[in-house]
Amino acid sequence: MRARDLAVEFPTVTLDTPALEAARLLADRDLPGLILIGDDGLPHSILPGTQVLRLAVPAYCQDDPALARVVDEAHADRFLHRLDGRTVRQCLPEEPRELPVAGPQATVLELASLMARTHSPLVAVVAGKRLIGAVTLQSLLDHALQL
């Protein structure tokens, strides 16, 4: 099976989409991540849901998980509100990574290799200058386990 056979339509956001809106999209649609589209209409990057969390979780809690325990429950439950006023652009890692994009002819093993190498739960499938859709880790595993 090829990427074009596994690819499904997938929601996209732009770099200037509010981060809180992106988090809601991730939650509402139960998505593993988002495809960020650049000005040219092509994938600029893939934003795993964990990167949204990275921006929302205070750095001191990421550096020392024990400090997360001292935050009272009412404030701990509202940590995502730190995203208010920020954009998706601010959720991206500072150093660019390999973009998890594949052509429609990519095999399942090529997709799996790309996901593993880039630590991405999804791969954007692009033909020429057009986004066809995405292959998620879930759909890739579902397919591979059926064989």
UniProtKB/TrEMBL annotation:
InterPro entries documented for this protein: CBS_dom (IPR000644), CBS_dom_sf (IPR046342)
SUPFAM superfamilies per record: CBS-domain pair (SSF54631)
Domain CBS: 98-143
Taxonomic superkingdom: Bacteria
Protein name: CBS domain-containing protein
Origin species: Nonomuraea salmonea
